[in-house]
Amino acid sequence: MAPEYLDKDIVIVSNIFPPTINDVVVVRSFDHGNILKRVVSKDQNVFKVQGDNSSYNSTINNVSFKRKDILGKVILKIRI
Predict the structure, then answer these.
(1) What is the mean pLDDT of each run of 10 residues along the chain (80 residues)?
(2) Which pairs with CB-CB distance under 8 Å and at least 24 residues apart come from 45-52?
C-alpha cells in the first residue's frame, strides 16, 4: 500500500460503517493473513480490492472478498 501506507504505520479500523469504493480496508485472507487493501468496486456484498503500489505485482490485486471477510475500514493512520 506504499506510498500511502508504510510497513510500520499503525491503523485504527472500524466495522460500524460499511466499506465503500475507495476506502482502505483490512481484509482477512486465508492465504496471507490480515492485509490492507483499497476497495475498487462493490457488487452487493462482494468487494474487489487492490493495493496502492502499482509497481508491486500483488497476487491479491483485483481479488474479490465477501463482506464477512472485511474486518473494517481504516479510520485513522498513525505514522511512526
Answers:
(1) 87 94 95 92 94 77 90 95
(2) 47/19, 49/25, 51/1, 52/1, 52/2, 52/3, 52/4, 52/5
Give the pLDDT score at 14.
97
Q: How far apart (Å, rounded) are the C-alpha atoms in residues 48 and 67? A: 10
Strand locations in the chain (E):
10-14, 24-29, 33-43, 46-50, 63-66, 70-78
Cβ–Cβ < 8 Å for 1, 14: no
Domains of the chain in start order, with CATH, are 10-78 (2.30.30)
Q: What is the pLDDT of residue 73?
A: 97
